[in-house]
Amino acid sequence: MNGKSALETRLQAALASREERWIRRRLPDPALSTSSTHPSPLADFTSNDYLSLSASSKLRTHLLQRLSTAPDILGSGGSRLLVNGRAHAQLEERLAAFFGGEEALLFNSGFDANVGFFACVPQRGDVVIYDEYIHASVHDGLRSSRVAPDSQFSFPHNSLSGLWDLLSRLKAERRGLRDGESSLFLAVESLYSMDGTFAPLTEMADMLEEVFPLKNAYLVVDEAHSTGIYGPQGRGRVALLGLEDRVLARLHTFGKALAATGAVVITSTLIRDYLLNYARSLIYTTSLSYANIIAADCSFDMLVDGTAQHLSNRLLDLSSYFTNTLQPLLTSRQIPPTLVSLPSSLSSPHHPPTPSPPHPHLPSPIIPLPSPIIPIHTPHPRPLSAYLLALGLNARPITWPTVPKGKDRVRVCLHAGNTRAEVDRLVRGVVDWAEETLRLGVGVDLGVDLKLGGGERGGGGGGGGDGVRRTGRGRVLDGVLESKL
Ligand SMILES: Cc1ncc(COP(=O)(O)O)c(C=O)c1O
């Protein structure tokens, strides 16, 4: 024995294997995080604080005032089923009305909400289909659900024709779905966290109703990244498109644009009641503290009073500015798309190309919205991110397994609090890095093994490694650029 237990040996081997494959995750340096008392010298192009509400003195003052007069702020006393705080119930009532839903149910996080919903609502014999880029929490929920593995299907990202084919096949193959004796759930994200793409929600709702006229197919929309930014008063894209009555459940999280913590599911009275009885991630956990509930409530005040709308306009304006500046520069400087590229959906920013209609009755989706999430595709996300960091720009590399192999990127997240000057520096940094890389003679032959593979979506896991197996010159490139920092 070498003194190590079997467990230690195995855990260390797994971590070493990740290190070897350049995918080991590590926490970022806390010094890179900004706070009101210790503002980071770095421009933030990475957090999900899209509206920069975490730095809002208006929200901060409002929250402190509310906390100072609230009857309860500490703890919550237990699970909602044990202690149902008045503040919790009032926030649910407020949110059901705000989002135009029948009922609202709070969860401690968006992750818990997705796990809780997908683990219990779909029943034995039902089918769940999901966009291939769906968040890890939906996968985790399905893993412990009663839905058989052979009744869980993904379809290509945002592909209406792929969805149409899958729905038609399932209808042909499964009598229960045809007869309305079993149900189908379609899980999508309103705005995809790693790609900044929008699900064509209206077309999806139309398609479910057309293929399953008995109304046994249900749309479930995760609005984690769209809450606060899109729709009237930031109510999300379901509200923007007027789909409230055609969606079974919507998830709104508080930890991203709302600068709080927690989440709410907007759904029917029956589903809420069922979740209260069967969603283990709700039943067997202490509910959010009173302080958390007050914080979320104060953030919703910012949505209602128009503060968020103002910030959202600024944010989306900045997003358009970024893509409208970077894309032409990449073209005019002849940067090969194999080295750096923006997604093709951004090639004409306000009118992304529309997928071909899968069915003659269905209109093409036109989505004239800018997104604050912009992936810069490159097979070398780590060196690019490190180069930007040295310029005072914090944009993180995202790699497999957070995104599929071969789809590595630096994920740029814009914020209402970013300035145009920061965005200009970011654009210049990306282009300078690309030109320097080309000058180093690496060219477009980057020595990268681009084996395609599935990803594991989730917001937190991007920064560990660059996720591609390098050969020869690719590895050299990392060394050369990193040694310059
Ligand atoms: C699409 C999506 N859904 C759900 C979640 C989880 O939300 P929360 O951070 O509140 O747990 C995230 C966060 O990464 C997300 O990106």
From TrEMBL:
A biological-process GO annotation: biotin biosynthetic process
Q: Known InterPro entries for this protein?
A: Aminotransferase_I/II_large, AON_synthase_class-II, PyrdxlP-dep_Trfase, PyrdxlP-dep_Trfase_major, PyrdxlP-dep_Trfase_small
Instruction: Kindly indicate whether the keyword RNA-binding belongs to this entry.
Output: no
Give residue spans, biased composition: Gly residues: 453-466
Q: Which UniProt keywords apply?
A: Pyridoxal phosphate, Transferase
Family of this protein: Belongs to the class-II pyridoxal-phosphate-dependent aminotransferase family. BioF subfamily.
User: What protein name does the entry list?
Assistant: Aminotransferase class I/classII large domain-containing protein
- What organism does the UniProt record list as the source? Galerina marginata (strain CBS 339.88)
Q: What is the lineage of its organism?
A: Eukaryota, Fungi, Dikarya, Basidiomycota, Agaricomycotina
